[in-house]
Amino acid sequence: MLPLHRWFSKDTHLSPKAGYPLGFEIPEINSSDPQRDRVARRWVFGSVGLTMVGLVSFLGIEMRRPALTHYRADDHSQSAHTFAPEREKHCRASLRYYRTGDRLTEIHFADIPEIINTQRIENTFLFNPCTEAPPQAQIGKQDGTSLIRLLEQIALDVERERSREPERRVVVTLTLDHAEVVGDQPRLDEAGIEQFLTAIATIIGNNQGAIAIIGPGGELQGQLRRLLYNVPQVEICGFAAIEMCVNESFSTVR
Length: 254
What we know:
6-stranded mixed sheet, two-stranded antiparallel ribbon, disordered N terminus
């Protein structure tokens, strides 16, 4: 085969020809060598054909990806008030993984969890929910941050969703500063651990879910790692690894 630079001589002229789909312009080739023209035309049409095949294949793969629900939860307790940049980074790290047909449920939590917004994603190019909504009136009326209540709320929601769509896939990513337990909030003691693990199992289902717990350090991080060491669908990481943690969770489910 002739090298590409030899297919076109100095007297070869390319002119655009309109009317082709998807913005492609097929050049009109005129030269003094008909054989060279034929080779050039094959190369041009071959390139366009390969581009079309690649585009169709990409769209086919995207359409076959299963839709999922993303629960994005953020700690809005008093101790976490300085972590607004981390909450925004958590939101932005999730944007690249959304597909048309996915659903997003946004939750703020402190002593109790509260669902802020639920929406179906129709256009991933225009979708940007990363503006900070104010905490709801009921959040933070009491001291403390209850991780167990949050996970139980999400588990109830997932059960309801899977009663309609048994194969529905779920990603939960949450930011957490500390889990200060106050009053009647469930603790990570024997009874609380059972509640905690039951909620985790409900969310994960039959390999249909993944969870990322982002932010805890020190003793809390160690306790969570010990409790979940044999649950590969759960990632526990610090704020410095937000993007990696979110990526692992979406990759596990998608």
